[in-house]
Please model this.
Amino acid sequence: MGIREVAALAGVSTTTVSHALSGRRAVSPATQQRVDAAVAELGYRPSAVARSLRTQRTHTVALLVPDIANPFYPAVARGLQDAVAAQDLFTVVGSTDGDRGRELGFVEEMLARQVDGLVLFTFALDDTDLQRVVGERTHLVVASGGVTDRYDTVTSDDAHGVEEAATYLLSQGIQDVAFVSGPEGVGPGDGRLAGFTAALRRVGMTTEGRVARGPYTVAGGQAAVTALLSGPSRPAAVVCANDLMAVGALRAAAEAGLRVPEDVAVVGFDDIDAAALVTPGLTTVRNPAYELGRRCGQTLLGRISGTDVGPPRDIQVPTDLVVRGSA
Amino acid sequence: MGIREVAALAGVSTTTVSHALSGRRAVSPATQQRVDAAVAELGYRPSAVARSLRTQRTHTVALLVPDIANPFYPAVARGLQDAVAAQDLFTVVGSTDGDRGRELGFVEEMLARQVDGLVLFTFALDDTDLQRVVGERTHLVVASGGVTDRYDTVTSDDAHGVEEAATYLLSQGIQDVAFVSGPEGVGPGDGRLAGFTAALRRVGMTTEGRVARGPYTVAGGQAAVTALLSGPSRPAAVVCANDLMAVGALRAAAEAGLRVPEDVAVVGFDDIDAAALVTPGLTTVRNPAYELGRRCGQTLLGRISGTDVGPPRDIQVPTDLVVRGSA
DNA sequence: CTGAAAGCGCTAACAA
DNA sequence: TTGTTAGCGCTTTCAG
Model:
């Protein structure tokens, strides 16, 4: 059941049905009414697939994230969705575990589906990959720091946030600080580590022997911090690359029989909802997930509508320290 | 750049290119090679849109959930995705806040996009709605209890889980138990309340004055339990319709200066990751989110492939009590 | 083993 | 104000 049946029932051409529905061409009141009646009677719903083939627009944007189970990303997705829904764009999200193959697979699939725009929180793809696989095939916003200068970019001021956190710890007289990052060269850990390094350098210290690594998960943080706490020089404070890891740090401390923050202070990054729920409350760097998603959406909208045809934009959103009980 | 250019460059017909790519018809090695070369040279990627229009299959299933920020649902999504990805189906998810208008909007949109299957965790739609808007237009699995007998169904044994939890509390000698449900007639709260009612009835008690209600969120649970705790007959235990609300209950207790579980015991439902992270650990009814999603996916697969043409199936997955510190 | 031709359901020149 | 016609990019009969 398609537009032809509606046209037949209403006694008009398919063109007229199309225009009666889209409003892109004037239609006499009588005709409009007959079309509406036919549509209602048949329960007709235009095929988005056929429309997309014809117009070369899918009214879809795709969001790639490493881990949808990390509450940070649903918040991003919501921001993106709210921003683009206003222009009738639908959002689809793919979670790739930061795996290069799956990241590439998702991007390829979305290109095959001809999405109108793509937002990437990528762990594994670099500028060259993007140039090769995406090229100019769709509008692209990259939300992973330091990846590209060819495409639009929306990032948090990660380094600044961590620098503020580390400085806060140092100002409390804590010297034995450590940083728990993700796998080397993967994800936002390194950018955040840079802020940590900067804070230490300002007081004449180095990060030598102060960095542990692990997956960006609760288990990853717990393992890394357990190792740290049982090592030769137990740190008095750990700054983690994200909140999930920081929650893991809390668990590691509890298992080691250490009090937080007295024996070991813990700082996270992101300020996910759970940060306020754990005990003690997690001191963390607030990363405005929703806002990030919203800005990605706005950027895409400008490109898709053709309003914005300038060179790549580079949008940075601020981060700030939220002090709770853990440090 | 489409299949025609590839055909031209390879010196064959578009038919042959199509078959060389799909493997649905034998192609001579020499031709295959020329096609592959042309594809590589042009960076050709078949249009999923055109293919869908032709084949009337989109290789997409949609999942409707009330709240993607509730970690329960990402876990469901993952289960669904893992199940259907094996058959090359892509999963899209829509979060509707349990709002009737948005639920209808999402379903309509997915039908317009001609998804191959639809999984609904709906709060607001009933059998009549589904019959009217979905009809036979796509394969449908309903994962909200008690909504339909016309479509396939995958649900948790909610009542049993809550009954077990309430019985556990009663067996501890706690008599003043209360249940915190969602808004009346909305979502899984009522089905869970039924289990609570059953447990009480078995010991000759009624739920009279023992039920509070609120949105299915941390804030909702906190507000409802705050009211309960400051009321005339303060309960010694609250069973909540989901873990988010139970976390809210924990906060309400803390704010009221009450110890958990000594002054007030708290039980949740779902066993989301956060249940193990809060202090004290949340005693809760485990709701196998991933498994639920997986079963929804398998059911859909059977229908989509035509393997399963029988009457509506009704799959129920078991729940069980997980005892931690909060009760 | 290969190709010509039709058509999926829609929109948009162009023409009346 | 309305209709005719072509075509978006692919797959699939049917014919050779």
